Amino acid sequence: MSAPAFRSVKADSAEVAALKGKTNLASESLSSKIISFTDEFFAEASNLLKDSDAVFLPEEFTDRGKWMDGWETKRHNKSYDWAIIQLGYAGSIFGFDIDTSHFTGNHAPVVSIEAANATEEEVRAGKAQFAEIIPRVDMNPGSHHYYVYEAPTAVYTHLRVNNYPDGGIARLRVYGQVVPQTVVSSANGVVDLAFVGNGGRAVACSNQHFCSPSNLLLPGRGKTMGDGWETRRSRTPGHNDWAILKLGLPGFIDTFEVDTRHFCGNYPPLVTMHATVSDEDVPPSDAQWTEVLAGVSTAADTQHYFDATGPKDVAFTHVKFTMYPDGGVKRIRVNGRPAQ
Predict the structure, then answer these.
(1) What is the Cα 120 distance to its own chain's centre?
(2) Which residue has the higher pLDDT, 340 or 284?
(3) pTM score, whole prediction
(4) Measured between alpha carbons, how far is 209 from 229 in angstroms, rounded to an integer?
(5) Model pLDDT for residues 321-338, shown as the tens digit of each residue
(6) pLDDT tens-digit profile of 193-249?
(7) Helix, strand or coil, per DSSP, at residue 216
(8) Which of 201, 93, 199 minimizes the C-alpha distance to 149?
(9) In sequence order, what DSSP letters do the residues of 122-156 get, joined into one string?
């Protein structure tokens, strides 16, 4: 079976901009993890999954050699190295960024990627059926290599990254769309309709100067101010910033959580929520938005809980979160009952 059709694209292309609007299925923030590997003598395979960009520290060494922020195997492999990644959530893949940043005399010269849809137990037991989805491609030193598919792939849970014959890769970004295998709910049964693990995603925003609105839908409460959504300061009277979230599970909204953790001098003084029904990823400009949370105040570094207003018999597909006039928020939860 041949790999799905794909092409290489330039970093400044519209295709890459679109890719970066997707979910990184291999993000450590989604609890992606390394299942197994052949070797990580110089640097750990888990570095592939870091959300931060790779860095280079010229004076940093370990007892095994130069410290590198990526996955680096030892030299002189007579075969090839590989690492198996369990994606944070099962999903369909739109494209990749295979990043060799800072690996200049020690990068992996050739890489291929295989994928499987299997349980962790099947993968660990060697029973998973992997299929090639990126055939062998040449790598350049210290570079991002972007690949996009002509059409999204099938749904996968695991990847095997093959490194021929050995060397280093800084990061692997796996841009795609979560396809929920089960509904993710909290310990007390609450369903966040917008949660990334339920297929939710940010599809539009007014501004993302400091960090992306996609962070609003991540698990947990984050580590720093850098993993929320923050806009630039506005100087225009009457300004507001907004983000549109497409619910992974269209449904009936009951409550909201707005979390401003780590945002202490830059949280929004006032926020609102509106909701709509649309078949489009981004609702059209003439979409009818219903207020489901009137203007409410927020405080620094606080989890806020609000009851939704508006109709209770409408299965909404999108919510629009608006900050007045600007600022930063860590997480948004849209709790409710899935329509199906």
Answers:
(1) 21
(2) 284
(3) 0.92
(4) 9
(5) 999 999 999 999 999 999
(6) 999 999 999 999 999 999 999 999 999 999 999 999 999 999 999 999 999 999 999
(7) helix
(8) 93
(9) HHHTT----EEEEEEEE--TT-EEEEEESS---EE
Cα–Cα distance between 231 and 206 in angstroms, integer? 8
Is the backbone peptide bond immediately before 58 cis, with ω within 30 degrees of 0? no
- 314 SS3 class: coil
First vs last C-alpha separation in the chain: 35
Amino acid at 175: Y
Cβ contact 54:142 at 8 Å: no
- Residue written as tokens 């497409």? 246
Alpha carbon distance 150, 282 (integer Å)? 21
Per-residue b or e along 284-321, where b marks 16 or more CB atoms closer than 10 Å to that residue's CB: eeeeebbebbeeeebeeeeeeeeebeeeeebbbbbbbb
- Residue 283 phi, psi (nearest 5): -55, 145
User: Average model confidence (pLDDT) for the chain?
Assistant: 96
Distance CA 252, CA 250 (A): 7
Q: Tell me, what amino acid is at 318?
A: H
The rounded Cα 48 to chain-centroid distance in angstroms is: 14
Tokens of 338: 């899935």
Sequence letter at residue 294? A
- Measured CA to CA, the distance from residue 99 to residue 68 in angstroms comes to 13
pLDDT in tens, 133-182: 999 999 999 999 999 999 999 999 999 999 999 999 999 999 999 999 89
d(CA 81, CA 167): 9
Q: Label residue 111 exposed, middle or buried (CB < 10 Å: 0-12, 13-18, 19+).
A: buried
Digit-coded pLDDT (tens) for 44-92: 999 999 999 999 999 999 999 999 999 999 999 999 999 999 999 999 9
| CA-atom Rg of the chain in angstroms | 21
Beta strands in 23-169 (DSSP E): 23-24, 33-37, 61-62, 65-66, 71-72, 81-99, 110-116, 131-138, 144-149, 155-164, 168-169
Give the rounded distance of the alpha carbon of 93 from its chain centre: 12
Q: Pick from 24, 318, 331, 30: which is nearest to 200 by CA?
A: 318
